[in-house]
Design goal:
The complex is a heterodimer. By secondary structure, chain A is α+β, with helices and mostly antiparallel strands. Chain A has nine helices and eleven strands. Helices cover 30% and strands 17% of the residues of chain A. In chain A, a hairpin with a 4-residue loop joins β5 and β6. Chain B is mainly α. Chain B has a domain of 65 residues. Chain B is 66% helix and 2% strand. Chain B is built from nine helices and two strands, in the order βαααααααβαα. In chain B, α2 packs across α5. The longest helix of chain B has 31 residues. Classes of the chains: A alpha+beta, B mainly alpha. Chains A and B meet through α3, α7, α8 and α9 of A and α1, α2, α6 and α8 of B. The complex binds protoporphyrin IX containing FE (HEM) and iron/sulfur cluster. Protoporphyrin IX containing FE (HEM) binds next to α1, α2, α5 and α6 of chain B.
Chain lengths: 296, 207
Amino acid sequence: MALQSLDIKQRSATTTPSPSMRQTPEVAKLIDISRCIGCKACQVACMEWNDVRDEIGSVDGTYNNPTDLTAASWTVMRFYEKENADPFDFEWLIRKDGCMHCADPGCLKACPAPGAIVQYANGIVDFHQENCIGCGYCITGCPFNVPRISKKDSKAYKCTLCSDRVAVGLEPACVKTCPTGAIMFGSKEQMTFQAGSRITELHGRGLTKAGLYDPPGVGGTHVMYVMKDVGDPGAIGLPTDPGISPLVSVWKGVSKPLATFALAAVALGSLFHYVTKGPNEVSKELEDELDKEDVK
Amino acid sequence: MIRDPKDLQRYTAQERANHWVVGICFILLALSGLAFFHPAFFPLAQIFGGGVWARILHPFVGVLMTLSFLGLFIRFRALNAMTPTDREWLSRIGEMASGNDHGMPEQGKYNGGQKLMFWVMSASILLLFVSGILIWRAYFGFPVGLVRLGAVVHAAVAAIMIAFIIVHVYAAIWVKGTVRAMWYGTVTRAWAKQHHRAWYRQMTGKS
Ligand code: HEM
Ligand code: SF4
């Protein structure tokens, strides 16, 4: 989604500064898993605000519906059934899945198309589909398996954190619609503070493992979770210590400019070899010698 | 260059055509691939009608190049078997490059450098093909770990291959009388005697 912006922090495949005259405070969405009832109102609000409709799929026997993120479903509720040691203590963990809006976004790092992915000063990572070439490198770069390429137009899509709403001072559509207040939105600072108070409250209620998921491996995220057991994010399908894969860092790191210089050096080296050493001509003596043989 | 009936036939028309198909594919692949490689090269995508077209076309040209290179591989594989003389030639490649090739060991149809080029190209194309399939998102969906590995391998091998091809083309330009072997397939006897004496003797029966 594109809006003319003067507060761009990073732009994919761009080596010069981006328009950054305007500065905005960092925002964050805080999802309190302990308060989510899995009603999927946020999924509906997301479709409505962004005006995208997924194809009707089929139910796979769980409450996961649709079963995965798609180019038209930018957020989905994932239901995890957790059986604890006490057989009567069965838990349903529900996570609202979608883009984490990483401070260090692997998608943006991997993207080869200039300006197809931008990160605003407020921390939102946005895809600009008009610049997208459809290569899928963002999927390769993302530590959270979020972007999806549309089968219809071969462009990549994902949650925009309602960058268009946030730009005009509104909260994201999912936040506005959540009936239990499980999704909150504000400055990153404020949300971190709010998460802290909630976690203290949960600790007081005996949920001693409760904590905030704001993984430092990706520089922190602009979508954070309050979870009941922060030591085990795997229980709700999140990586324990996410970060940009070392393979992606090698692929997109200093090796690229170095290889570019190396190629230029080989080409220029060849040119200067010619200019300094001269061509390797067939020797005149050999030619004359063969001519003489012919005459004989 | 005057064509002389006594010139030596180095390549048949089929061999030349095969080589040109591979060469044209390579140029298209290098230009479109580099567009994704680093932002500095992104403007190259315009040659293909923009980034989307470059992304669509590149892998198909890659498959075509792999298939046509297979033809070259089958034709020239046996002629490129490395021998101890080739290794000696390679160890003294510095003398050759400095323009002082008189003392170099006598070479057959291909010298050690050409043979090395052949094997580097064969290995590169195999790796580029396999890694290229892994990262071809439009038609395949491999596990992300494999795709990441494929991306690194593809980019690294592509850079190596482009560097070797620059050397390959430069060597043909530097050694005068060579490029015609790829235009009309013949070289002069003097060229052969100077650069590939064993092959010259084999072709002419002379010493
Ligand atoms: C042999 C068959 C090949 C296949 C199937 C293939 C496929 C691909 C694919 C799928 C991509 C990702 C962009 C896209 O979706 O179009 C890509 C990128 C690339 N290809 Fe190929 N390719 C092949 C051969 C080559 C060759 C021979 C070269 C170079 C001489 C090359 C150079 C590159 C480069 C430099 C990139 C960008 C890598 C990066 O983003 O770091 N490819 N290739
Ligand atoms: S979660 Fe994935 S798509 Fe979202 S910002 Fe991070 S790397 Fe990009």
